[in-house]
Amino acid sequence: MSGAPRASRTPVTIITGFLGSGKTTLLNRLLADPVLADSAVIINEFGEIGIDHLLVSTPAENMVLLDSGCLCCMVRGDLVETLADLYRKRETGEVPQFSRLLIETTGLADPVPVLQSIVSEPALSEVYALRDVVSLVDAVNGEAQLDEHAESVKQAAVADALLITKADIASADAIARLEKRLRRLNPGADFHRVVRGDIDPATFFDASTREPQAKPRDVNRWVNAAAFESHEHEEDAHCSEHRHDRRIQSFAFYRDRPIRRAGLTMWLDMLAGLRGANLLRVKGVLNVEGDPVLVNAVQTVVHEPVVLDAWPDEDRRSKLVFIARDMQRDEIERTFDAFDFELAGGAARSAFDPAAYAQFVAAMKGFR
Asked: Do residues 159 and 189 make contact, with C-beta atoms less than 8 angstroms apart?
């Protein structure tokens, strides 16, 4: 595959959620909407999501066209191979053109390996760009699933948007408890209540927040540091009752001094390499030598930083939010000394600089 400019990469939305959370219903709703006619969707088995009534024709092996014009692809084997094959067939005209891709994970899946494939696999990252993770949580059974299954907690913690499904058949008290619990796990996510999959596709598929031309209000909404601040000041003894939840901590950080470019690179490498498994989500807009830069990481998956065309507002401080597992706030904050790291004389990263190396070692002590 040949590389593509960032703006021309196909955006990918991952739809996840525990068994019975309503992914089938949501996908049926989305795939039937003409707005998504130029989309492709990857699922595990056609029978699982019940789209037989939408099928029109079979343009290629494991691929079918839907009556809305969407292209549906069944995974048989490796996801990376499936994604690469889908791209190749689009380029050669074997399947119709598509401008976005949806990937539905199985109910018991950890979504992070899917993210990692798209972001880290060179052949895929050149042509696909991860956009959002949408997690569905069942309002009737969601609390019990969060109690019993760590996968369900992780699906919620890494999400950009959380959809509370079956809101029409759950009690108001159950919905309120579930939303409160999810906001503790992931304060910065967009929350939506959904009945029978009825949601405007534009909620997920408008202009991407993580592009240089993103609107200021969209950037601030995506980082949503204020929600993390409010969460940190709340006292909720209820959290200690949930064994999975109490391992999760959420923090918001601000920094007044600009960050060195080399320091940001070193810090991101350090995050992923040393404690990536514990950092479920990291998002922020940083002042990097005067430029506004978006950062986004999920565990060991670090997205390429994006330089914005303009600041979201008049605030020039760096803003960072974390959702961490089995980590304390001060452990993270101690690593921020790495932000001041600067290569002597603009040396290449491979050049050995004793002073810079000493600074690197000192910053690493925050993760001991």
From this structure: yes
